[in-house]
User: Fold this.
Amino acid sequence: MRTFWNISGSLNAIPEWQPNCWIQVTCPTEEDQRVLEEEYKIPDYFLSDISDTDERARYEYDDGWMLIILRIPYVKEVRSRTPYTTVPLGIIHKRDVTITVCYYETNMLLDFVSYQQKRGEGFTDYVDLIFRLFLSSAVWYLKRLKKITALIEKAKGNLDRDVNTESLIGLSRLQDSLTYFITSIRGNENLLQKLKFKLQVDELDADLIEDVNIEMTQARETTNIYSDILESTMDTYSSIINNNMNNTMRTLTSVSIILMFPTLISSFFGMNLVNGMETSKWGFAIAVVISVIITFLSWWILRRKRLL
Assistant:
C-alpha cells in the first residue's frame, strides 16, 4: 500500500506524488513493487534485501540513490518462538524523492505518523525525516522492552509457585527476543554514526542526532541489563531443577535401600535350606519382626544422615 505525505508545514496525506513529499510503502503488493522498480527506478536487489528479515542495518549509494536499511521492533501476531523481533525498514532518497518501504505493518510506523500529525509539524527536509525515524525506532525499542520485562516478571512469578516447562520455554523465547534487539540496536547505532557524516546535517539535525544517541544508548544498555537478568534467572531455575532432581533421586535411592532389607531377610528365610525355623510356628513372625527392626534402623540411620 502506497501513501503520499506532504511533509512541509504539517504531515498531510495527498492523492498523488509531488516533489519533496514522503512516499510510505507498507506491505507492498506486486503493483507497488512494479511502480518502485519501473517508475522510480529503485534497484530491485535492494527491495529484495528489505524483504529479508535477517538483513542487517546499513547504507549504500547506487545510481544516485541513497539506500538505507534501519532495523525496527516488530511484534509477531501469531504464536512463534520469538514473539518480539526486528524487521528491516528501507529508507530511499534521491533528490526530491523520499520513500520508505517496510514489508510488515508495524505499530512504530503507525505511531510515527500519528505523533507527527499531533505535533502539527512536518519535516524540514529528508535528513530530518531520516533521523526522526531513527529516534522513533529507539523509543519503540524501549516500549517493547517494558512489555518484555512485564512478561519476564509474570513468568518468574509462575516459576516461584511451580517450576514448569511452559514458563521456562517462555523465558527462553524472551531471551531470543532480547538477542535480536541488542543486535539490531548495535547495528542502528553504527549506522547512525556513519550517516551523520554522510548527510547534510545542520544545527537542528545535530540536536536531533544527540537525542537519538541518548535514546539508543539507553535502549542498548537496558537490553543488556534485561538480558543479563534473564540469563541469571534461567541459570538459577536450572540449578533449582537440578537440585530438585537430585533430591528426588536421593530419596528414591534411600527408599530402595530401606526396602532391600525386608526383601533380603525374606529371601534368606525362604531358601530351601535348614535354618532351624522350618517347624517353628513363630518362624514367620520372627522373620517379620527382624525385617521391621532392621528396616527401622536403616530408616533412622538415613534420616540422621539427612538422606531422607
Summary: The two ends are 68 Å apart (CA to CA). The longest strand covers residues 65-75. Strands lie at 2-6, 12-14, 22-26, 58-62, 65-75, 84-94, 97-102. The CA atoms of residues 112 and 236 lie 40 Å apart.
